[in-house]
Probable nicotinate-nucleotide adenylyltransferase (Paenibacillus azoreducens), 200 residues
Amino acid sequence: MKVGIMGGTFDPIHIGHLLAAEAARDSFGLDEVWFMPSHIPPHKEQAGASGEDRLGMVAEAISDHPCFRTLDIEIRRGGVSYTIDTVKEIRGSFEDIEFHFIIGADMVNYLPKWEGIEELVNLMSFIGVGRPGSTLNLAALPPYLHGKVLLADMPQVDISSTEIRERLATGHSIRYMVTDSVYDYIRRRGLYGIQPGRTD
Ligand code: ATP
Ligand code: MG
């Protein structure tokens, strides 16, 4: 069985994440994609929404896809989430599964800085997707990453969670940037400084 892991902060999950996961699944015949919110990402400040809410929003966003699942391992473990720790932990329980980690172009360029990356590339491959604002140049990666990053085509979506948080905090709509179910979740829980009672 081939499984894609879609890691991220998902603060909140948006359609760029969903399209990336679907493009990877479709291009490489993945049986499932597991969406795995990090607890504290190594390269970021603390997240805006709690781990529980970020996981809740992911669950809402993917509920209608027959092949998408959530994986709460990093939220449960707590602390800073290093992919190398996670992959070592899950490999023991899923020995028959071939794992592929799905990442956008900004993360592809950041791969050399990942904790334990030289060990990680021997445990799984990466599927990279394009993202506006970041150039995908696999040849520029260090030699140990050559052949380890496969590319999937996706419609380019210039949306980030940062932009969504800023729009909510300043009273703007995020409709169609996230699924209706995620927008409802944000309203219901009053996340990201959204004005109470807004329905647009
Ligand atoms: P933030 O602005 O908070 O960093 P983000 O939109 O970058 O949020 P993350 O949770 O940091 O979302 O990203 C998780 C993964 O999804 C990363 O590998 C990232 O490259 C990828 N990704 C996020 N947005 C897009 C997008 N619009 N197109 C392609 N890949 C994306
Ligand atoms: Mg990001």
Q: What stands out?
A: The chain has a mean pLDDT of 96. Residues 8-11, 16-17, 20, 103-104, 106-107, 129, 131, 157, 159-162 surround adenosine-5'-triphosphate (ligand 1) (CB under 6 Å). Residues 2-157 form a domain with the Rossmann fold fold (CATH 3.40.50.620).
